[in-house]
Amino acid sequence: MTNTQVTLVQIDNYGPWTVTPEPRREADLQTMQSRLYADISQFVGNRGGYTFFTRFDNMIAVTNGLDREDHALLQESVGNRYPVTLSLGIATGTNPVQALADATARLQEAGSAQDKHRRECLEGRVIDEPYRADDDIQIAHFDVINATGNYTDELNAFDTFIEIEQGYAELMRHMRYAHDSLSFFVGGDNVIVVCPDLEAADYEEALAHVEEAVDVEMQVGVGRGKSAHEAGFAAKHALETCRADGTRVELEWKTA
Amino acid sequence: MTNTQVTLVQIDNYGPWTVTPEPRREADLQTMQSRLYADISQFVGNRGGYTFFTRFDNMIAVTNGLDREDHALLQESVGNRYPVTLSLGIATGTNPVQALADATARLQEAGSAQDKHRRECLEGRVIDEPYRADDDIQIAHFDVINATGNYTDELNAFDTFIEIEQGYAELMRHMRYAHDSLSFFVGGDNVIVVCPDLEAADYEEALAHVEEAVDVEMQVGVGRGKSAHEAGFAAKHALETCRADGTRVELEWKTA
Amino acid sequence: MTNTQVTLVQIDNYGPWTVTPEPRREADLQTMQSRLYADISQFVGNRGGYTFFTRFDNMIAVTNGLDREDHALLQESVGNRYPVTLSLGIATGTNPVQALADATARLQEAGSAQDKHRRECLEGRVIDEPYRADDDIQIAHFDVINATGNYTDELNAFDTFIEIEQGYAELMRHMRYAHDSLSFFVGGDNVIVVCPDLEAADYEEALAHVEEAVDVEMQVGVGRGKSAHEAGFAAKHALETCRADGTRVELEWKTA
Amino acid sequence: MTNTQVTLVQIDNYGPWTVTPEPRREADLQTMQSRLYADISQFVGNRGGYTFFTRFDNMIAVTNGLDREDHALLQESVGNRYPVTLSLGIATGTNPVQALADATARLQEAGSAQDKHRRECLEGRVIDEPYRADDDIQIAHFDVINATGNYTDELNAFDTFIEIEQGYAELMRHMRYAHDSLSFFVGGDNVIVVCPDLEAADYEEALAHVEEAVDVEMQVGVGRGKSAHEAGFAAKHALETCRADGTRVELEWKTA
């Protein structure tokens, strides 16, 4: 059984800020957002977690291994260095989608994302250290088969992007509604998926679905671990096996 | 008539680098990619251009106002500060998709994105200063109507993301194939579109198409200018008018 | 008794890299150095430590609370994101100067700072968690009395800088040779000093010495703690007391 | 004749901000300051200028080639991305110390560095493009002879730092009072000096003075150019000649 700790990271009242007193330069907003994301990714990542940029104003992180003090420190540190502040909602569970729904609900109860009086909320609970297990997290790392040869070196850069984006859009919906999983595009032709307790057959089904729906061929490595990094690292190694052996689904964990 | 200068920014041999000698920590890759993007956005942006993160290993920029020396300086500066290098393809034209296709072709002719001997290529031509015009660029800035009230404060964060992502995926395909435009998600519920010479009716058609196809209601502000910043800034102001007046399409430029 | 854990952070073979194959743009070197420092400051700082930029190619950190795995992770993360790599020497002791000397010796034994075969060394030992104590670190935070009124708003910016620099140079030498302490300029008119077990009289002596030698009047807040952050935070509060009450030396810790 | 354009960059009301409502974490301040410096260095640097971190809350830049719009854009961009704002004073002249004094005076007249109502001032004038000349800037790049062999690989890291710091402190004072020059430590064992129209004999005198006063042996490469980058790049090449040939002073410019 997985036990995923999910943190919703929301920039407080961000939309209004971007146009107050008048619209801010887009390049500055892009720079600020992506550096803020990079900092959070680094903070969470060097404690074993993963952060996904998602919509940038709402980021989603897998934070097993981070306690409430860590979350509070992240808020404080961002508040000291950026012109915006963060609210954080945390929840845990065997089903990542449900955990995220709970984390979201906690922030929604605290106030609207555009409520200017809701600032630096920290809501929810973490998995206490004694309750953490070696297989709390399951991560699947998908990529597009021979994306460089089939797309990047052949199509124009936008059409390649459309192909990959289409594969991602289909995969994200399917994994969410059929498999209670959270899928995130992470650059290139890579999608990282935070999963509950899925099996090889589930991934085979998902690959077949995407191929049929949008004609994009993908492969996937899957890993388990105590943290997102551990699970994700095993998934990367499994994906290397796909690439080397031409297989479509590889799972890398000690069998139960 | 628009005359868009497009630059394709490609990290050299990036895929192989991310797994050599073995897979690198995902959080570090995410941090490095997004900071690299932020730096390019800043460099291009403070010369009046726009950069879109796209796939991160392939970024697309609108670079009217930057000459070849500027591009070369960007390459040199990134090469001095990052563990990776950039190749750049530049092209111009009335049709942004065609311009990007040309820019892509120039890099593809120079070598594969995963050719380790293709490093720091700089290919293509810019619009010389005397040939630049005040209406070279047309930018449309879309957002989702009442995204915070309808989605962010109501659905869980991932389902909100799916809705926005779906609207984006449909819009990007439609604008590319029906209107020769390049659409980029820029965070929150915002999509920036680099367009040829489109009219209000074209945007109305696109909004109707997206609403019918995926049931996402959007609005759009459109601007023209000599640079991406000028056009995009006018588009932002036009979008503020939509928000204030409840209109769906606003164009902000002096009519010809 | 203090027990300071000191880490010497050395960029591997940096001097030669800056001029290979020919001198690199100074602005890029400055950007890269200061961002690398910022990242290390953030990594160490959000684990309770302090990092000082010192010479940039050689940085000095107080790392109580960071174990060898943390140090290794810092090396790995920097190696994944920068064009340069780090070697780290760690040592501990009641005398910060001696600890730094030991940390330095470990790196020197591993090879020259300009030996291109010495890369990513990690040498030395940390204080194991059970041996850490609440008063392991003593930090003194000095500033110049009314620097803004006496200097910044009166002299030209360089002459102000000379005054502050002179105060710092005298303080750093005196604290090192008379009090076995490591002093670091941290911006503005602030100097942070990592001390052994000093008393109020020692600080009074130091202030008097600096005033006599170079005619710069300073004040100092001193704190103790389990980590650099705890001690430094107490020192900052003590310095606020100096500012409020017009005193010259304030110590903030529970007396033994 | 040189004609140096100097910009004083001052963070508005920074001291009070760092302790409001209570002292902020030192590691965050260090991170924020050094990244802000890095961004300014990059902005100014990719327009041919040099920025020196100096005291971090007051930075000094050589900005030949940047006009008032560039300065205003820097202010706007920083204001959009940081929790602090910048005021800028600009002045020009044949004597860099006098230019800096004028730039400082303009900001001082606008208000105190700790006046909370003085925000984002932009004062002073630049050299208009037609008046710029190929030899407007003279830069000298000093380093310590065999610093790695004599110090870094021999002494502990702090004693090495004291030696280099002492050399710098002596050089900065001497160059300022004897030669109207602004000297900045830029990391490692390097000092960059912004000079008026000095000759080889002046540098020989300065080297002799430093050696006699504090027993630190330095060498220096000197360059001229239209911008800080051009002059500094020539200086770096000249310094490479010193290193290769064992000479102490090298000037690299086309003789008048």
Domains of chain A, number: 2
CATH class value of the largest domain in chain A? Alpha Beta
Distance between the termini of chain A: 11 Å
Biggest sheet statistics of chain A: 5 strands, mixed
Structural class of chain A: alpha+beta
CATH architecture identity of the largest domain in chain A: 2-Layer Sandwich
Based on CA atoms alone, the radius of gyration of chain A comes out at 19 Å
CATH fold call of the largest domain in chain A: Alpha-Beta Plaits
Q: Could you spell the SSE succession of chain A in H and E letters?
A: EHHEEHEHEEHHEEHEHE
Total DSSP E strands of chain A: 10
Instruction: Give the overall shape of chain A.
Output: globular
- The percent range for strand residues of chain A is 15-25%
Strand order of the largest sheet of chain A: 2-3-1-4-5
What is the share of helical residues of chain A? 40-55%
Q: Uncertain spans of chain A, ≥5 residues at pLDDT below 50?
A: none
CATH homologous superfamily heading of the largest domain in chain A = Nucleotide cyclase, GGDEF domain
Overall mean confidence score, pLDDT of chain A: 96
User: How large is the count of helical segments of chain A?
Assistant: 8
Largest interface (CB within 8 Å) is between: A-B, 77 and 77 residues
Organism (chains A, B, C, D): Natrinema limicola JCM 13563
EC number (chains A, B, C, D): 3.5.4.29
InterPro entries (chains A, B, C, D): GTP_CycHdrlase_3, Nucleotide_cyclase, Rev_trsase/Diguanyl_cyclase
Function (chains A, B, C, D): Catalyzes the formation of 2-amino-5-formylamino-6-ribofuranosylamino-4(3H)-pyrimidinone ribonucleotide monophosphate and inorganic phosphate from GTP. Also has an independent pyrophosphate phosphohydrolase activity.
